[in-house]
């Protein structure tokens, strides 16, 4: 019977030692779960580092060979840098105007991305149209050229 008592006492002390360990572990789990429940993930506004990365990517897109540059031409890097900054700032302002603190920012981030794309396309299209207009003869020159050719045709006849 002494053996039974000593075995029971050993089991009781082993259980007593593991219970505080389990209780402490459970407390840590509960504390972590409470922290995670209070954790909110906000993706708006983007950090300055993220905004700088967007600007750098815009500069790269505007100034190097791409699908966009094949259609509209490349922009010198210094000009692309200033254009990229203004594109990003304008898109950030437009998107930020629609931000609500209760929002997680996903819709605003999508708006920001769309604004950047739209403004980038508007910029390259406008620049290409301006360059094309500068390369084309002016309307007066074209009209004078037509008159000359018409006159020479009449004179020859």
Automatic annotation (TrEMBL):
<dbReference type="InterPro" id="IPR025265">
    <property type="entry name" value="WPP_dom"/>
</dbReference>
<dbReference type="GO" id="GO:0005737">
    <property type="term" value="C:cytoplasm"/>
</dbReference>
<dbReference type="GO" id="GO:0000278">
    <property type="term" value="P:mitotic cell cycle"/>
</dbReference>
<dbReference type="InterPro" id="IPR038214">
    <property type="entry name" value="WPP_sf"/>
</dbReference>
<feature type="region of interest" description="Disordered">
    <location>
        <begin position="127"/>
        <end position="157"/>
    </location>
</feature>
<protein>
    <recommendedName>
        <fullName>WPP domain-containing protein</fullName>
    </recommendedName>
</protein>
<dbReference type="GO" id="GO:0048527">
    <property type="term" value="P:lateral root development"/>
</dbReference>
<dbReference type="Pfam" id="PF13943">
    <property type="entry name" value="WPP"/>
</dbReference>
<dbReference type="InterPro" id="IPR044692">
    <property type="entry name" value="WPP1/2/3"/>
</dbReference>
<dbReference type="GO" id="GO:0005634">
    <property type="term" value="C:nucleus"/>
</dbReference>
<feature type="region of interest" description="Disordered">
    <location>
        <begin position="1"/>
        <end position="25"/>
    </location>
</feature>
<feature type="compositionally biased region" description="Low complexity">
    <location>
        <begin position="128"/>
        <end position="157"/>
    </location>
</feature>
<feature type="domain" description="WPP">
    <location>
        <begin position="41"/>
        <end position="133"/>
    </location>
</feature>
<keyword id="KW-0539">Nucleus</keyword>
<keyword id="KW-0963">Cytoplasm</keyword>
């Amino acid at each position: 019977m002494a053996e039974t008592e000593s075995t029971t006492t050993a089991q009781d002390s082993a259980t007593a030692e593991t219970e505080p360990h389990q209780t402490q572990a459970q407390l840590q789990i509960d504390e972590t779960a409470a922290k995670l429940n209070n954790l909110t993930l906000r993706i708006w506004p983007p950090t300055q580092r993220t905004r700088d990365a967007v600007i750098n990517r815009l500069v790269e897109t505007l100034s190097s060979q791409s699908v966009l540059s094949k259609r509209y031409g490349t922009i010198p890097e210094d000009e692309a840098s200033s254009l990229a900054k203004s594109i990003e700032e304008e898109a950030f302002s437009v998107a930020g105007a629609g931000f609500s603190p209760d929002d997680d920012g996903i819709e605003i981030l999508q708006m920001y991305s769309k604004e950047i794309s739209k403004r980038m396309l508007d910029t390259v299209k406008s620049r290409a149209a301006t360059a094309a207009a500068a390369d084309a003869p002016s309307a007066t020159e074209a009209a004078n050229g037509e008159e000359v050719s018409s006159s020479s045709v009449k004179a020859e006849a």
